[in-house]
Amino acid sequence: MRRTSEDTLSWSATGTRLFLDAVAGWGEEQYLAPSGLPGWTRKHLVAHVAANADALSNLVRWAATGEETPMYSSMEQRNADIEAGSAKPAAELAAWLQGSADRLTAGTVALSSAQWDAEVVTAQGRTVPATEIPWLRSREVCVHAVDLASGVSFADLPAGFLTALADDITGKRRNAPGPAVVLTATDTGDRWELPGEGDPTAVTGPLAEVAAYLAGRPHALTATDGSPAPALPAWL
Fold first, then answer.
1. 152, 179, 194: which is the final residue of a domain?
2. 39, 61, 165, 202 - which has most CB atoms within 10 Å?
3. What whole-number distance in Å separates Cα of residue 46 and Cα of residue 168?
4. Is residue 228 part of a domain?
5. pTM over the 0.85 mark
6. Is 113 among the domain residues?
């Protein structure tokens, strides 16, 4: 992975600021508008991001104390919390979003070097060092800042984050069913291969569009022969 702990802390801060700035001053009408995710209003998305900060704060607590503290009590509870959050008044939802982000930042700042090395378990069941927490958060806030459908695009995200995101998604897709694709970012020269079914399809375009394509978001990529870029299975 082409990322460092300093990178992920920076991207987490940048993504958090992008997300918070995007929703600043919103009232009920803006919050109730559709997000970029099918079936979710912006309230659903904001509730999800706020709940994610609280869940990652659980992992920070685990790293700090050694006491096993899962991100969520269950996936059913996670989904119920998002639904409940989507019904909160705009002001209450905004306060939860800000407060949860502040608590996560304060918790990570307080971790010692040894605590950063402590092992925790993600919601997907992966055992990782606590140094992975800022990366998990940066993915959430950066990608979902785009999903707010409020004007933020993948082109507004840090280039280093986009490269790391493409690395991360490609790694996860390598063992998933789907078409074989070779991707090249025309503005950076970076290249990714997705093994899969059939002869590989060559797809090229700007790094921001490559990252959007891999993440399953709207994009402007086509194959080099002019045909549509192959549809990919879900990322997460």
1. 152
2. 165
3. 24
4. no
5. yes
6. yes
**Euclidean distance between CA atoms 148 and 41, whole angstroms:** 9
Binned average pLDDT, 10 residues per bin, the chain of 236 residues: 90 98 98 97 98 98 97 92 95 98 98 98 95 98 98 98 96 85 97 92 97 96 94 84
B/e letters for 61-86, b = 16+ CB within 10 Å, e = fewer, are ebbbeeeebebbeeeeebeebbeebb
Instruction: State residue 177's pLDDT score.
Output: 84
**How far from chain centre, in Å, is Cα 58?**
18
- Predicted pLDDT of residue 234: 83
Spatial distance between the Cα atoms of 235 and 169, rounded to a whole number of angstroms: 7
Q: How far apart are CA 32 and CA 175, in angstroms?
A: 37
* pLDDT value of residue 18: 98
140 and 164 inside one domain: no
Q: Find the DSSP H helices in the chain.
A: 5-23, 28-32, 42-65, 75-85, 90-109, 113-116, 133-147, 159-173, 207-214
CATH number for position 105: 1.20.120.450
Count how many domains the chain has. Answer: 2
Residue 1 identity? M
Domain ranges, residue 61: 5-152
The answer to whether residue 142 sits within a structural domain is yes
